[in-house]
Amino acid sequence: WRSKKMARKDENLSPEEEQLRQLKADQKAFKKEQKTQRNLNDTLIDMPKAEERIDKWLWCMRVFKTRTIATDACKKGRVTINGVSLKPSRMIKPGDVVDVKKPPVTYTFRVLQIPPNRLGAKLVPEYLENLTSPSQYELLEMTKISGFVDRQKGLGRPTKRDSRELSRFKEESYADSFFLDWEDDDEDDD
Prior knowledge:
The protein is of the alpha+beta class. Helix content is 55%, strand content 13%. The protein contains six helices and seven strands; from the N terminus they run ααβααββββββαα. The longest helix is centred in the N-terminal third of the chain and has 32 residues, at 15-46.
């Protein structure tokens, strides 16, 4: 019943009203096409890339906390592919094996895919394969442990115990020198 009523309305439209109705229909179709195009663009953005700058890739993969730190590491020669130091602008592609020196450890990664943007930590294994040898991780663990045990005297910030001993020593030596000088002065007066 409704479609018959609408059909009767369409028959009774003037040419201006018909143009207006057609214009509104065209605008609606245009908006729908734009929405479809936006969805297509969003899909294209999320697709993996073929190549990426090494500094951006290291940042995206959370090897370095900031892109600036990743760039500095490249400039200092701490990032290599096949033993060759890289500039931060070097493009990498899937299949490349990247070595990253973060003293005392050298990490090794294989590029599986290039991500569209920075990833959450849980998604990183989908885009890179960690080839770092277990001996490097043992070296890192030993460094962490020895950092607390083998601190050489005089290096680094004093511990609380060191500070107390130093303050006691200063107080005692000041008091001793004060009294010694006082006694010397009394003897001179006699």
